[in-house]
Amino acid sequence: MQRRQFLKNGFASVGYAGALSMAMGAMGQKAAAGTHMSAGTSVGGAALRGPYLDLLTGHGNQLAYARLQGNLDFESQKYFWFKGYVMGHQPHTRIKDLFGAQGFGVIRLQERDDGVIERICREIIVYTDLRTNEVLQEWENPYIDETVKVVHVDNDPFNYTIEDHFPPPPEFGGINKKKEAPKRTPFILPWVQNEDWLEMEMHIHLAYPNALQPNEWPRESSGPIAQVSEFFAHHVRAQDMQNEALTTLPYRGTWNRITPWLPWMLMGQAEGNCQYAAFMGTCDHPGDVLPRTVVDYAEKHYAKYFDAPEVWTPVGLSSLENYKHTQKPSPVKSRS
């Protein structure tokens, strides 16, 4: 209790910084064959070392990351949002803008007796028409000249811990379980001060066994291995970072993701991939940022996703695993 009270009311004497979730990132397929998040080195700028933060230490970044992710007033929850679109890449052809990708998540923090902070989260991605922002139920796939059923992403939960070292890669039901524990690296993020702003970019490169294997999911599977990369750019005001009165920090930034064809596109192992490009940030409520069409759809179909879970659970599945549990393989098209 004394430590919790210290984090809520006395954190100015220790120092924090911030970054967005490795899961918004989470947003979907996350498991690594090796290191799932690269460490960095904070360089340049007086705001990196104080007066209230030390962004050159793992402990300072642990508390700071929690401060951006959620709220160190543990009774409060925090929303993040993202809004962008998905493109299709194929060799030797022009890139296509395919559909919108919009969504939000809500995060609650709690602290263990050993000082580890638990990030408890629900999040959704819905795919939208590029012109109208209407949520898609079906989509005309121009690559295969076929109407396909759209499957949105709902992660409940997507939880992980925030520590003074980078966490180990998630196991996701055992498909990414390692024989030996990976070497742990201090949780130091690559912060740079640019005048009144602190900026940080994080890259996550993944390659892991595909939950949708091609022998069982011939139209949905991109192949035996899922190769995914995510890119987060964060911008936060230096004066906010160094303000001891703030238990949570607003941020703005961008999220990009390179991923195999989405399984519901029914592309199989065709050459190419998808790329997400989105703005992201925090808000008081998703309705303040996202189109009304998206918020109305979420209120009707994902009502519980406006509130973070109350209890920590260590379970977290990738969107491919969720797809495997909720969908069925599409019949292979017969050859005429």
Order of helices and strands: HHEEEEEEEEEEHEEHH
How many whole angstroms does the radius of gyration measure?
Answer: 20 Å
- Uncertain spans: 1-39
Count of DSSP-assigned helices: 5
Shape: globular
Share of β-strand residues: 25-35%
Number of strands: 12
Helix amount: 10-25%
Mean pLDDT: 85
Largest sheet: 10 strands, antiparallel
**Class inferred from helices and paired strands:** alpha+beta
Distance between the termini: 70 Å
Structure description:
With 336 residues, this protein is of the alpha+beta class. It is built from five helices and twelve strands. The chain has helices at residues 2-9, 58-69, 238-241, 292-301, 319-326, and strands spanning 77-89, 96-111, 117-128, 138-141, 146-149, 153-155, 160-162, 191-194, 197-209, 225-237, 252-259, 273-283. The strands form two sheets. Strands 1, 2, 3, 6, 7, 8, 9, 10, 11 and 12 form a ten-stranded antiparallel beta sheet that branches. The radius of gyration is 20 Å and the shape is globular.
Secondary-structure topology with pairs:
Layout: H1 2-9, H2 58-69, E1 77-89, E2 96-111, E3 117-128, E4 138-141, E5 146-149, E6 153-155, E7 160-162, E8 191-194, E9 197-209, E10 225-237, H3 238-241, E11 252-259, E12 273-283, H4 292-301, H5 319-326
Antiparallel strand pairs: 1-2, 1-12, 2-3, 3-6, 3-7, 4-5, 8-9, 9-10, 10-11, 11-12
